[in-house]
Amino acid sequence: IPGYGDSPSAETVVTAQGRVAFLDHVLQKLGMQRPILISPSMSGRFALPFLLVQGDRLSGFVPIAPVGTKDYTAEQYRRVQTPTLILYGDRDTGLAPQALQNLQHLPEHQVVVLPGAGHACYLDKPEDFHRALLGFLRRLK
Predict the structure, then answer these.
(1) Which one of 39, 43, 109, 119 is the catalytic residue?
(2) Where does the record locate the signal sequence feature (predicted)?
(3) Euclidean distance between CA atoms 138 and 135, whole angstroms
């Protein structure tokens, strides 16, 4: 993600519109049509505005305690019709509860909490994570 880790900073992703355009560009370059967008932690800054503006282009959305959920209103979330699996570890007591409080307004959502897992629940409990993810994928049209 531009501006995170060892990647160079990018002025084009300073705004939510710029982050939507960036993610749109990546999906187009990869030739992806109706992908499932998995969004752990910091990637929420990119995934959430994309979901709210272009969620109809996604087959599904899997937020994993993403940042930025409080930047949007309950009404904005209610307009999204993308099937969503809200996933987090029960030991993530910082970001996960806030994310759930906001994301629960998505009308087409289900919640899976991984016992004994922290913020990076996919690393802490990979088998449980994959079981939940695959179950969600099987239910998509």
Answers:
(1) 119
(2) none
(3) 5
Q: Is 92 one of the catalytic residues?
A: yes
- pLDDT of 10 > 90? The answer is no
Structure tokens at 2: 């531009």
- b/e map 48-71, b = 16+ CB within 10 Å: bbbbbbebebbebbbbbbbbbbee
Contact 55, 61 (CB under 8 A): yes
**7 is a catalytic site residue:** no
Residues 139, 46: Cα–Cα separation, whole Å = 25
Please determine, for residue 83, whether its predicted confidence score (pLDDT) is greater than 80.
yes
Q: What's the mean pLDDT in 34-53?
A: 94
33 token code pair? 């049509």
For the entire predicted model, the pTM comes to 0.91
State which fold the 34-139 domain adopts. Rossmann fold (3.40.50)
Question: Which residue in the list 39, 92, 109, 128 is annotated as catalytic?
Answer: 92
Q: Where residue 8 falls among pLDDT bands split at 50, 70, 90?
A: low
| Set 41, 43, 109, 128: catalytic member | 41
Q: How far is CA 23 from CA 1, 74, 140, in A?
A: 10, 23, 22
